[in-house]
Amino acid sequence: MKHTQIPLVTLHESPPLPGNGKFHVKLIEGVYQNLRRLVSWPLLGLFFILVWVRINGQPLIMFDVNAHRIFLFGAELSWYDLPILAGMMICGASLLFFMAVGWGRVWCGFACPQSIWTWLFIRIEEMVEGRAAKRAQLEQGSLRGLTLVKRMVKHSLWLLLSFATALTFSGYFVPIDLLIADLIQLDLSLFGLSWLIIMSLLTYANAGLVREKVCLHMCPYSRFQGVMFDDKTYTVTYDRARGEPRSHLRGKDETQGDCVDCSICVQVCPTGIDIRDGLQAACIDCAACIDACDTVMVKLGKETGLIGFYSEQSLTDRAPKNNRFTPRVKTILRPRLLGYFCIFITTLLAVSYALQTKTELIIEVARDRGALYQIINGHVCNHYQIELEAFSPQLTQLSIAVDSSLPLGTLALIGPEHIDLFDQNTSTHYTVCAANAQLPSKMDIAFTFTSGAFSASKNSTFLAPY
């Protein structure tokens, strides 16, 4: 029997994960950094502003735990509408997957709160202690004098921003004005104060102390991103065929690549990786290395794009240009991408429909269980406790009526004709009576509540003697 030899395959060692050593990120300007600010700064502004916005006295966005209400852009949801929130999360997840399959971790690099706050903290760090090289120099010196003052100022500003973030975030669950008033008057509960302290410290640690560790070890997306990508996914990629072998300006010949090994792409990376080692779990596609490398290429009089948003296929299938090969742009339309987009659109339509048909009035009708019925002046009477909770600012007063299969006028409703919804919920006692003549022992009745064009009903039962 003839045996075939298994071919020898050389496996390239994967690049190491970012080390535990501290590194200082160099800030860079460029097209992608301007685009990132164009996305992240409005999101940051909305976070701090929307918590103060009110519509007809109601918050624009709030998850009001005490009132059991959710306010979303003028819509008021009950806890019974939590499936709508689940639909919104599915909608957001499908959009994230769609973007991941098409363009990698652009959400992480351009819009993720962790990235936005990390860049803010780096800005503060540079404003107080200087550029990256200066910060690295101060790190090597002794912590005293002006260096100590700068370090204390930096951490104080970090803590101040962290506390403002925690306070604003809490304002989406508790009215922000009441929260600040209690804080100023030192009347904040122990739970509320503990929550603010914990959230502040978490923000301070995530964005200031462990930055890249969050993206690599805590964010689940860094772990399953490889499942989302394929050979057509556009991510921040180093053009190895063009850049290698690396060289320096002196003694450079035609056989050497365009990469001059300046390492500026490493210096500007917020997670401390070398993009030239290939796709890595810690890369968040912030494109800082693209802007940095393009700046160097322009200074050297070379074509930009040594690092860019490329797919594996576009680098493999190249097109000739000026006697050299450049990545070919391929269509992004493919089944997986279209599938996620269809899921996103379908979920979005379902959520929109659910918002149009959401619960506006919760009705609870409890018949008095102490006595099945009472005979009062020849009439059979049943007692009911009706509880109403409205989730629409238009429902301030409701008219009530009772219906049954009996001829009109057989049942008499004893109680207020109109119900005023104080604080949008109320509890009222009603009695329903009928003449004690040829009544079935049990029959279905319905309480109907109306207010203008709005109408809702709740079924119950009416008991009578044999």
UniProtKB/TrEMBL annotation:
The chain crosses the membrane at residues 38-55, 82-101, 157-176, 188-209, 337-355. Pfam families: Fer4_18, FixG_C. Residues 251-278 form the 4Fe-4S ferredoxin-type domain. The keyword ATP-binding does not apply. InterPro entries: 4Fe4S_Fe-S-bd, 4Fe4S_Fe_S_CS, Cyt_c_oxidase_cbb3_FixG, Electron_Trans/Redox, FixG_C, Ig-like_fold. The keyword Membrane applies. Keywords: 4Fe-4S, Electron transport, Iron, Iron-sulfur, Membrane, Metal-binding, Transmembrane, Transmembrane helix, Transport. NCBIfam families: ccoG_rdxA_fixG. This is Cytochrome c oxidase accessory protein CcoG. It comes from Neptuniibacter pectenicola.
